[in-house]
Amino acid sequence: MTTFIARLKSVVKRVIAPVRQPNPITKFEYSTLPWIDKGDADVDAFIRQNPGHKDLSYDLAEKMKFWRENGYVILEQALQKEWLDQLWLEAEELIEHHEKYQTLVRVDLPSYQNNPIQPIKNVPKSILNGPYIKFNDFHDNSVIGKKLMLHQNIVSFLSAIFDDKVIGMQSLLFKYGSQQATHQDFAYVVSEIPSHLAAAWIPLEDVHADSGPLFYYPGSHKIDKFNFGNGIFFNDKSTLNPDHFATYLDETCQKAGLEKKTLLIKKGDVLIWHAALAHGGEKIGNPELTRKSFVCHYSSSKAYQHHRQSPNAEPIRRTINGADVFASPIMPDQEDIFDAGKTM
Fold first, then answer.
1. Which of 122, 247, 298, 344 gets the most CB atoms within 10 Å of its CB?
2. What is the total count of domains within the chain?
3. What percent of the residues of the chain are helix, what percent strand, and what percent coil, each to the nearest 5?
């Protein structure tokens, strides 16, 4: 009887014991972090050792210290407004005469759910001119797009953050607010070293509170990463989805006491944010209001050595202000077809 009871207890213990799972990855690998994300980061020492960052429209040391604590910076009136106007003129040309162009667009509408990425010539003008549309990598097509992406004020800040040459990875151009749920970019935009990622939002007009402005949680770049069931990156093997991701981020930020802020940025300003800053787009309150935007993603030379569309080939580089952007390997004939920016 004693033996039977002992066996029974053993069985019950195995049945009710929790399933042991490997510890989820909750942080970037420390050794690969950009220097400024490490605990011993000394901004003043960096500035003393790298005196070449001069003639900027902002105090670099001040912005770097703010970034270290908050995961973002705003560079006020850092971009030429005539450059911004030129970029949107080109976007209007794309929409108006879409049948002439190969530029890829993402259509976030139910009717395009099975094939959201389309050549712009295949999408009706009525859809192109509305919400739920993003023009992908328009900097490939546009000289002024490249100049804005690799503007001196942006490149100088990012090169200091990475302590490396800056690489422009990709861009999105859109007319209306994204209305995207809370997310962190690294889960979707993956560099060869995941922590070596940053983004810039370049508004092409002043942003109104009812246009679906960007929101963000300052300091959220330091919270633990979300595990999609197969790691911290979302892909076709993930067992959890972006809705779970958004819920986790909102709840974790609130529990950490991080304040959700909305950004009413001005034309000429630029917002630069950390790969892990939790952010998204508010709902559009007034459907008549646009939020014309150019969003660019960046990595470092050591972390992004090949174009994502041709990972085994040596990229063709375009260099501006000491930073590189790779030419499109799939549509070389569309490179710089909008060339008015050459004289600007």
1. 298
2. 1
3. 35, 20, 45
Question: Does any domain span residue 24?
Answer: no
Tell me how far apart the alpha carbons of residues 336 and 72 are, in angstroms, rounded to a whole number.
Answer: 31
Q: How far apart are CA 282 and CA 295, in angstroms?
A: 16
Q: Give CA–CA dist 254/248, Å, rounded.
A: 10
Give the per-residue pLDDT at 56.
87
- Residue 148 belongs to domain spanning: 59-343
- The tokens describing 287, both together, are 């459907």
Number of Cβ within a 10 Å radius of residue 193: 18
**Tokens 């499109």, located at residue:** 328
As a whole number of angstroms, the distance between CA 29 and CA 299 comes to: 16
Q: Is 329 exposed, middle or buried (0-12, 13-18, 19+ CB in 10 A)?
A: middle
pTM assigned to the model: 0.91
pLDDT in tens, 162-192: 999 999 999 999 999 999 999 999 999 989 9
What is the rounded distance in angstroms from the CA atom of residue 128 to the CA atom of residue 121?
10
Three-state SS string across 221-249, please? HHCCCCCCCCCCCCCCCCCCCHHHHHHHH
Confidence of residue 86 (pLDDT cuts 50, 70, 90): very high
CATH number of the CATH domain containing 72? 2.60.120.620
Residue 17 lies in a domain: no
* Chain segment 249-280, per-residue pLDDT in tens: 999 999 999 999 999 999 999 999 999 999 99
DSSP, residue by residue, 136-178: ETGGGTBHHHHHHHT-HHHHHHHHHHHTS-EEEEEEEEESS--
Buried b (16+ CB within 10 A) or exposed e, 82-111: ebbebbbebbeebbeebeebebbbebeeee
